[in-house]
Structures are given as C-alpha cells and as structure tokens.
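Submission sheet (multi-component)
Chains listed below:
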Amino acid sequence: MATTILKKPGTFYEVFTRKPDADKINTHYCPGCGHGKLHKLIAEAIEDFGIQDRVIIINPVGCSVFLYYYFDTGHIQVAHGRAPAVATGIKRVHPHSIVISYQGDGDLAAIGGNEILHAANRGEHITVFFVNNAIYGMTGGQMAPTTLPGMKTTTTPRGRDIRNEGYPLKMAELIATLDAPVYVERVALTDAKNMARARKAVRKAIQIQMENKGFAFVEALSACPTGWGMNPPDAEKWINEVMTKYFPLGVFKDISDKVEPVKFEKKVLSPEEIKKAIGVDGETLTMKKYQRNIVAEKYKNPKIKVAGFGGQGILLLGLVLAQAGMLEEYNVSWLPSYGPEMRGGTANCHVNISEFEIASPLVSIPTALIVMNRPSLEKFEPTVKSGGLIIYDNSLIDIEPSRKDVEVIPVPATKIADDIGSTKVANMVMLGAYIGYTGILTKESVFDALDIVVKRKELNELNRRAIEAGIEYVM
Amino acid sequence: MQITLQKAFIKINKEQCKGCTLCIETCPVDVLKISDKFNSRGYHYAEYVGDGCTGCGVCFYACPEPGAITVYKRGAVVDEEILTLN
Ligand SMILES: Cc1ncc(C[n+]2csc(CCOP(=O)(O)OP(=O)(O)O)c2C)c(N)n1
Ligand code: SF4
Ligand code: SF4
Ligand code: SF4
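Outcome: structure written.
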C-alpha cells in the first residue's frame, strides 16, 4: 500500500538533543537551504529500506558538519575533504555497514578533490552525496570550485574570472569518466519534478551499496539563499534557469544492471588464527599470570622517556617496557617519535606504565628519563619532573646531568654490553638498570616480553644476559 | 478513535517552520499561504488555507525542515483527534 501519511522520517531524532543550543527542534540551517531537502530524502530512504542500524554517515566540514545532530545513525565527523578516505576505511572494515559520505563542494571539489577521485577510481562500495551550492556556505560565501563564471562571491567580488580562477569543476562528469564508478547522476533540489528525480536518485545510490555493487555518486544542485543573497524561491529558480545550464542534470553513468555484486564474507578469526596472523605462537599468549613487584611510591606509574641515537635500539627498549607492563596487566602506551633522519639521527619514545587509565600517550614531563646520547641528555634533562629519575649511559655521555632535584644514575651501558659480547645490547643493559633500580617490572615479564617483541629470537640469549648485567650493576 | 480520512489535508507545525515559502511556491493547487502572524523565532509561518489539498505530497519534499509539514492523504487511517488538534 502506498504511504498515506508523509511525516518527519523516523531516521531523524525526535528531539535534537545533541544540539548545544536551547532550540532542540529546528535545524541550524538557514531558511530554504537545500541541505535540509537532501537530508529529508536520505532520511526517508534509510527508513524505508530498514537500514538505520547499519548506516554510518561521514560528516564533512561545511554547513552540514552537524549531520550528527539530526540523523539517528552512526556517524563520524572528519577533517575537511577527507570523508571519502574515512568512508573507505570504515566500509572495508565493516563491509556490512552502509557508509554514506555527505559533502559540500568546498569539501569535495576543493580541499578534498584528490580524495574523492581516488575513492571513486578504486570503486569503493560507498554512497556519496555531493551538495553543489556553488559556494562555501559555512565560511561566509567564498568562491568554490563550482562557482559559475561571472558569479559574485566574497572572494570574487567582481565575479569569477575564468582567466584567473579557471572554470567550474563538473564533478559528476569527471567521475563518470572513471572506469570503476557504478552510478553517477546530477539532480537539482528544486521544484516538484526535480525533487521526484532527486528522490529516486538518492534511493538508487543507497540501493547500489545495499546490493554490494560499488561506488555511487549523486551530485545535488542545492540552494544557498544566504550565500547567494536571494530569497529561497528565487534561489531555486536560479538553479533551474542558470545553474543547470552549466551543470546539466541527468545520469552520467549507470552500469548497475551489468555489474556483479561483490560478496563480502564476514570473516571471524579464531583465537588461533589471530595469534598466527600477528605472528606470536600460541604459548606466549596463554593467560599466564604475572606477579607484580611491590614498587616504591616514587617509581610507580612512571612516565618514561627513552632517548638516544637512531640505531641504539631506543624504540625497542621502550617497546619491551610497554609489552612487559602489558603482561603485568598495567595500562601501557608506547609512542615512537623519530628524528627526520632515522639512522644516525636522534630517536626517542614515550612510554606510560600505569595502574590508571592513560589520558595521553605523550610524555612531555617524564618521571624517568633513560638516555643514551649527549644531545638527548641536553635536550630532555630540563624536562624531567622534579624528584624524577635520570639514567644515562656514561660510557657514551661525557657530561653529567646538572639537576640537583632529580635522582641521577650513571650506567656504563655500552661498555658493559661490549664486555658481554656486543655494544648493540647496550639498550638492554639500560633497560635492566631501570627495572633493577626501580623494581617497576619483574625480570620474568621483561624476558617474556622480549620473546614477543623481538622477531629474531636467537638474539634474545644475549639480550637476556645484557638485561641481567644491567640489573646487577645497579644492585 | 481511528478514522479513515475522506479528504486529504496537511498540517504545518508553525514552530518548525522557517517561513521560506518554498511549500507555498510549489503547491499546485495554491492552498498554502504565509501567515501574518509569526512564531516564537520571529518567522512568518506557512499555513494551510483549510480546504482543497489533494494530498499530492509535493510540499512535503519542498520543505527543508524535517518536521514542519505532515501530509495526510485520502484513505489514511488516523486518530480522530488529529482533525481537531492544531
Ligand atoms: C583544513 C581546513 N581548511 C579550511 C577550513 C575552513 N572551512 C570551513 S567550511 C569550508 C568550506 C565549506 O564549503 P562547502 O564544502 O561548499 O560546504 P557548505 O558550507 O557550502 O555546505 C572551509 C573552507 C577548515 N575548516 N578546515
Ligand atoms: S549558508 Fe547556505 S548552505 Fe549554509 S545553511 Fe545557510 S543556506 Fe544552507
Ligand atoms: S499536499 Fe499538495 S495540494 Fe496539499 S498542500 Fe501540499 S502541495 Fe498543496
Ligand atoms: S517549506 Fe517548510 S519551512 Fe518553508 S514555509 Fe513551508 S513549511 Fe515553512
């Protein structure tokens, strides 16, 4: 039976509680804005198709940045122009979701021009709704790539001059030249006839994704009465009479009858397969319980910075600390930070090991600095928290830290490492010295962490000896 | 009580109307007009003149606001009180 009541689609929130202002009933759009008309068509289609729980809408930057105020679906708000890239990621990870990229012409055709072409060219299984209002609405009516020749905007006060600003980009035509897209149409959000066409196009573009057929793109010519300085009926007339001359309406590509639907397998990996995929053998991941040391108050929940030359194994040192912390069921984070030159340059990493949730993986004020070259000592010594700890390799660093309000432990790590077989394991001597001195992690968990983290297991014999030597040195 | 509508009509929620006049412009039988009263946000809202709506639904899609217009077509089964509530 045909619908006998046309009312606010159920895809919209009943009350827009996500809106921060007092008015939770009305949209933030200007009167007569085309965004609202397109929203309604999309909301209606989602409701009619019964896919509300599967839809994820990518919110752009532009006047429609607040799509999540209105649609009771999944959302992610993304950086300007990056919606197709984020849509790609989400769709590939969740092929059973219906991913809708909603973008304005500044977002899609200017800053995001590259993203959309590549997503289209890869034939991503996403639906793109492209609102072409020939202007940047949100920022106050600047020229967009779609601004018509001669059209006045705040950045083309004498009218767009094609010799200076080039020609309007015809995105639908451009995308239709690519091999992968399945369906490309341009519609206009104007009179009754055009709205009926637009409604059909919106539904088709979503259906193509539901049928796993591929990339669908609908460009909608849309009124921006505010940006154009017109009243809403005149704005829609202008679309019909002027804009469509430059941006003709119609289907530019439709191979939806010919393409084979893709079958997305929902692959659920068994624990064994997951372990295999990430390259750890079954044994190391069993639920072994690790006994934590009792740690002195001042060494608890350390924020650690490890720093030295690239090639000294600075990042590995941090990684083993974090991995061992994880085995002991602490919250941990590890954030590498490379110098511009990886080898020979400086490298450092930030490690948190905490009984509490970690608010930020960044360690800007370390409570422990493990440092293996002089430039890093000079750079990071001033940042150490008062009462904190500095462990430095005094076989390489020929100065002493000057801070009097921190604990300073020199460890001739490179020399010790050389004595037991290789200067390469100086990082492990430092690690041993740190855990031995503070007791923050047990030798057992650190040894197991080594086996998880280090790919060439045959090196671990020497690594373990180096760690033990480090522990011994500070005991 | 539920009744079956013998005649189409529309309802405009005046607080959700922004007075853009697109519905008025598009109605093929010209049964919508702008009110000389304005709502709490200062917009002169659209009104149904009370008779003559064919239930074509064109104004519903012309309106950018999610809930400003509801169209009840002939044959719709509704609560009787819909007719009286405004
Ligand atoms: C990286 C970045 N550059 C620039 C901006 C400023 N900015 C905000 S919205 C916008 C243009 C929006 O225009 P459009 O995509 O056409 O959407 P509309 O507002 O017209 O719906 C720009 C340039 C930004 N937010 N982020
Ligand atoms: S500025 Fe233009 S695009 Fe933005 S809400 Fe207003 S009318 Fe719509
Ligand atoms: S449903 Fe059709 S006839 Fe009735 S008010 Fe709306 S546009 Fe006019
Ligand atoms: S189209 Fe909607 S917002 Fe515009 S005047 Fe009509 S009811 Fe009001």
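Remark: Chain A has a mean pLDDT of 94.
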